[in-house]
Amino acid sequence: MDSNEVKMSVELDVFVGNTTIMDEEVYQLWLDGYTVSDAVSIRMKSGILEQFGTTEDVLESDTMDHYRTFQMTERLLHHPSKLVNQVLFQIPPHRQAMLIERYYAFDEAFVREVLGKKLSKGTKKDLDDVSAKTGITLKSCRRQFDNFKRVFKVVEEMKGPLVENVQCNFLLSDKLARDYAAIVFFANSRFETGKKKLQYLTFEDFAFCACQLIQNWTVGAVDNMVEDMDVDLDKEFLQDLKDLKILITDKDMLDQHKSLVCTGLRGKIQVFNEMEGNFKNLSRGLINIAAKLTNTKDVRDFFIDLVEKVIEPCKADRWLISDVRAFLTQYTNSARALDGFKYVQSS
Question: With contact defined as beta carbons under 8 Å apart, do 260 and 334 qualify?
Answer without folding.
Answer: yes
